[in-house]
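Handoff note, outgoing to incoming analyst
You'll be picking up this chain. Sequence as last confirmed:
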Amino acid sequence: MPQPTATAPEAGPSGLPRPSAPGRPGTPGPRPAGQEHRAPRRRTPGRGRGRTAARAAAVRASAGAAVRAAGPVLAAYAASTALHLAMLALLRRPARGSVQDHLLSWDARHFLSIAADGYPDGFSRTPDGELTGNELAFLPLYPLVSRAASAVLGASAGAGALVVAHLALLAALFAVHRLVLGLYGPRTAAFAVVLLCAAQPMGIVFAMGYSESLFLALAAGALLACRREAWLTAGALGCLAGLTRPTAAAVALAVAVAAVQSAAAGRRVRWRPVAGSALACLGTPLYLLWVGDRLGRWDAWFRIQQAGWGTHWDAGARFAGFLPDALVRETGWVPVSTAVLVLGVILLTAAAWRGPGRCVPGVLPLAVYGTAVVVLALGQSNYYHCKLRMLAPAVLFLLPPARALAAARPRTAAAAAGGAALFGTWYGASMLATWPYAV
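Most recent structure output, in case you need it:
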């Protein structure tokens, strides 16, 4: 009698066996209605290892790009610092102190006084009872960070102030390089940092015990954060810039412009750009209110500025009167060179607005910031010989020559940038060493 033989299940269209009929032991029952059959997921051999390798390659590529970007910045910083110090050592007068004494002169003494002893409790007056300036005119972030650096390093207040200035300069150069790199490309970014720290006439201030380098680092960081739409970061950096220099109004304006651009592009208002813009406005007003409360007058800070340095807003009237005198009647090289160089800054700032670079997406906040720095520096009634130092963080006026150097032949560009760096380091060291009121 023939024995029954087992038959293989019928194959389905996919080549897999069809499910056995319901009711047999060990076989699945009918699927609920609406539940689709899914083929078992097959793990591709080496798929996980491939993803890991791809991620590792991306990290290596990012690190390599960061190293390549760091090269021009570190080279510019090292060369400019060496040139500034060499020029200052060559031109200084031994009777006026060492190189470090020059780097810690004038306003640096006020910052060191704040770092060591804090702020005075009231107005300062001459023996005749006349109101004069004091340390309350200087905003607090730079001296406080300098005090912290001195404590960490176990060094003097002057050494701490110089360390903070140089670290801030490095951070500023990296931020400016990254910002210009995203707008104009690597060659323009490299020349921009060279012109910024070495070629502009008073670039030496970034290596001194002054707050300009810290302010520029915070301002450039805020602009870079705006470009990446990190609005709260931009607002926080703008607020810190406002605790460093009053010129931070330019940073707050640039953050607001970037926020408006973002709202216009997305056709809706989001809370983060609004919050970042508001936060960027707070730094300097908070300090002015603190000074007013400390001295019992809301206008205390303005009175100290006027009494100590003759500084108030006059919409540029005093500087406009200085220009014709310097260009027509003056014979000294300091006022004449100051007038010519400031006029050059004004023309280059206008060229940045009119040139082809104005159409680059994302350049408007940088243009607004740089122009506002120029307006704020020239619109005050303070000493004319401080103008070039106050214009140093503007950045915008350096873009037209940086773009021209980037478009030139390599040898021509290298020679022109080297000559500009020699002039800038000589001018700053000469002003600091021979002119008693340079900064």
